[in-house]
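Quick one: structure tokens for this chain, please?
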Amino acid sequence: MNKKKLHIVLASPRGFCAGVDRAVQIVELALKKYGSPVYVRHEIVHNKFVVDGLRAKGAVFVSELNEIPDDGQPVIFSAHGVPKSVPKEAKKRNMFYIDATCPLVSKVHKEAIRYFEKEKRQIILIGHEGHPEVIGTMGQLPEGAVVLVESVDDVDIIKVEDPDNLAYCTQTTLSVDDTADIVKKLKVRFPTIMEPHKEDICYATTNRQAAVSNIAKLVDAMIVIGAPNSSNSNRLYEVAKNNGCAVAMLVQRAPDIDWSVIDDCNKLGITAGASAPEILIDEVIKEARDRYDVMLEEISVTEEDIAFNVPRILRD
């Protein structure tokens, strides 16, 4: 029986970013150096496959520090960053902690602190309420110092202390286009608002969205591999839908794919969020080959060569 032909277009860049790669390495190296258990506060990154893999190696994931016994084993803070209250509590308990916060998230923290403490500006943070990164960034400053804006409509209704004494920062995993619209409106309402010295949305988020935007109009359907609680993966799904791709789906693994939707397609785009490892992309391609006569093509918008060092204590 002849299989239906399916042209798969792989978006590049895709998958793991430098911050995620560093965070996963930190847990693996800590397990190698200190043995099990190594505690991790929250999911180290938003990907079930990655988290389950580290759990199988001896990582213990907890919601809060009070779940961790005083056994001297390391506790790792996730790549999304934590409020200042978390390391403060860890120090109070003499815990041995290692911070796996992505350096690009740490940059936003430092930026917000500098604007608030040195320039006495109130901070407007563009981001999604409840996301760990937003909780971590807001938690760098006293209550009331940061005002959260989630949408263009929010700009009209937020209340600030002094309209002429503001600065804005953004979550690193937002939609580039949506954020640009929010910033534009902020500048109209608050003409003197200070902006980051360098774009807060990280290179990986920007590159992956550009890659999806580039191929969305070329394909009939797009599969985004990523977790439902992953901000950057959800943004890739939205970018595909907003750039002419008739069918888009966000899935965690190959078994989650509704292939009946793909049956009418001739061209399928595949990408992965910044927390999804390449092995999950390989899994989807293998499943596609089992069903279709696959022709594989990769379209790249840029090359990435960024890497972040793990903490010195794990390099010794």
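Residues 79 and 101 are 4 Å apart (CA to CA).
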